[in-house]
Amino acid sequence: MPMYGDAGLKLVQHAKRTQNLTHLPPYQTELVRSVAKEVRDLHKDATNLLEPFLKVQGSFDPSTDPATACTLLVNHLSMRRNKRCLLAYHRTRTDKLEDLVWSGHDVLDLSAQQTGGESGSSSLSPQEEDYVRQYGDLLAAFKGHWTDIDLTGSLEPPKDLFIDVRVLKDAGEIQTEYGAINLTKNSQFFVRQGDVERLIAQGYLQKLG
Amino acid sequence: MDIDDILREVDPTFHSIPQEQRDLQDLTRAYVAERCAPELLHYPPGNLIDRVHENIKRQIEMVEEMTGNMNPKTNFALIVIQNELERYRFILRSYLRERIRKIHKHTLHYLSTDELRSRLSEIEVRYATARQSRLHEHYMSSFLAEFPPQLQNLNDTAGNLNMIDSPDLDSAVFVRLLRDTLVESRGVDDDGLIEGKEGQIFILRWADAKPLVERSSAELI
């Protein structure tokens, strides 16, 4: 027989584990649903408990009936705890999703790949997919104010203007101020860091040395 | 020899404009302070960031102009300027990102009062508000909408527990005194009062260091 709060605890454990993962594990639809249901049930219980008092006296005085007062308090705290668990779980996931958006990944594509793309299943909930889409737009608008400094660029202090890179995946042709470079797999180039930063972040190129 | 000295020799437009150099200095100081302080600091006054952004834009244009020129002498200058440009861009980017990181962490806190709100730039306020409302919508559609109405808030303070998390103002920072001043600090057992001399370095709670920094009597390091 699962106890009150068990599902909430599981959610928090999921969230804790998610913090250390590089990818986003599947959304726990069932758990979230059962925690939310628990809150609704607790609220119903509380309302039922209070009802006779409100009918007879119009208000509830905790000192006249300590037992009921205690039940109500525990009920209430459980609801609050569940809410915190749900918030923590969702916040951890949105933080992760935002990080992915910042680093320039196509999050929706990525989550579809992870699950093998089977029958359109995704590790994101439909609401999360919405959020990612909206956040992507929001960030793009924000970045638009700072086009010249590439806000999502590398946060490593720049050391050299030019770096050696090796091409890990075919990335096609890119334009630099020294002409076009064709990035074919396994080739190696000496290029301006600013020109290829995006490709390094996306895993097409590897920085050498 | 400083990079500025080299630039001054190769770039004829550089020597007569101390304003840009001051801007760089101000930006660097703001950047270091922002990185060191546990809470969000005021957005620099007087359009500093806009000016810096303008400068970067101009430099980029200049680099593009110079690229066509294959004269080895300008080519060397070009590399120096590009190097400088990359660093300039990095400081600004890193500075803005640090602010975003703090805003992300305590969005509701910084949006909650006018005083705190005034620390953000207009763009930052717009971004933070939009993000917060989207986040709230996301919570609502994911689970919060099923909750009883009195539990749907995100800013409850019931049970002496504020839902809005705020930065820890008592965390420690290092400051260097820029002039002789009295340094007051609160300790666990005892409060301290020291006659500070210019150039001395202290480790203080941010809450104690803040007035010194705001009076420009000290800088964060």
TrEMBL record, chain A:
Domain GINS subunit, first and last residues per copy: 66-144
Lineage top rank: taxon: Eukaryota
Cell compartment(s), UniProt: Nucleus
Presence of the UniProt keyword Cytoplasm in the record: no
Similarity comment: Belongs to the GINS1/PSF1 family.
Function of the protein: Required for correct functioning of the GINS complex, a complex that plays an essential role in the initiation of DNA replication, and progression of DNA replication forks. GINS complex seems to bind preferentially to single-stranded DNA. The GINS complex plays an essential role in the initiation of DNA replication.
UniProt protein name: DNA replication complex GINS protein PSF1
Taxonomic placement: Eukaryota, Fungi, Dikarya, Ascomycota, Pezizomycotina
UniProtKB/TrEMBL annotation, chain B:
Coiled-coil residues: none
Residue span(s) of domain DNA replication complex GINS protein SLD5 C-terminal: 167-221
Signal peptide extent: none
Record keyword Repressor present: no
Gene Ontology biological process terms in this record: DNA-templated DNA replication; double-strand break repair via break-induced replication
UniProt entry keywords in alphabetical sequence: DNA replication, Nucleus
Organism domain of life: Eukaryota
Name the UniProt record assigns to this protein: DNA replication complex GINS protein SLD5
Keyword Nucleus: yes
Subcellular location: Nucleus
Family: Belongs to the GINS4/SLD5 family.
GO cellular component: GINS complex
Lineage: Eukaryota, Fungi, Dikarya, Ascomycota, Pezizomycotina
Job description of the protein: The GINS complex plays an essential role in the initiation of DNA replication.
Domain called GINS subunit: residue spans: 56-139
Chief place of localization: nucleus
